[in-house]
Fold this protein.
Amino acid sequence: MTHHHDTTHIDWDEMTPLLEIGVELHSPLYRQAADWMGTLAPAAGVRRILDVGSGPGVLTVLLAEAFPYAEVVAVDATAPLLERARERAERAGLGDRISTLHAELPEDFEKLGEADLIWAGNSLHHIGDQRAALAGFARLLRPGGLLALAEGGLPARHLPRDIGIGRPGLEARMGVATDDWFTQMRAELPGAKDEVEDWRALTAGAGLTPSGARTFLLDVPAPIPQVARDHLIADFTRQLDVLGEALSAEDRATLERLLDPADPQGLHHRADPYLLFARTVHTARRG
């Protein structure tokens, strides 16, 4: 989704490499989620899937693999990400079943067409009026169709509480600053409306029948592989840039040390980084 903010503007073109590698690292978690959705929506009855906010198409491919009879449509507002999704589909040998659709929500709901399964992975929160967006998804679902929202869970953690430099609890404080950033980002969206993030109640309010939620865990203990280390360095670099003055001078200095390739206690050399992450998937069905 493309938006126009100042301090909270997200440049999706610039974010593409970080986003793509991050989703690839998390793909074991999302493969579990896709398999679970297969128990709620048997593959034989799923003929068309919308992957809303598809990004570079990592989940699009997983959905096509989990639902072998379905056409899967990658929906996104960023053309370079859709191009990456097309390339990924071709590499996976799924170019005949995966297509892409450039759409800006909520304006382009009518372009999406009907579906038996709609996956909205971390995309609903980029739409100002989430309640109206859920109603739009509900209208697109065929009878018996399933909506799956990946929203919430637990933020990724990578470091011990005490890393030996700076004040202990750095990632917890970064998490607080990120929550504040997220609140501001939401407030600046066009048509933004505050909602209690009770996804069961919100999907029921859209006329759907809640059909369960599950949380999926990704646990990569130390020592992490180099690709995960590189992603962590890129992610912390971005967080230092985005969070900026929201962090104390001491925490900024600690982050700068962590990102310094010459610092023996930095992320380039530490043996203790890990990856622990949980994502919750909420589902609801059209009667």
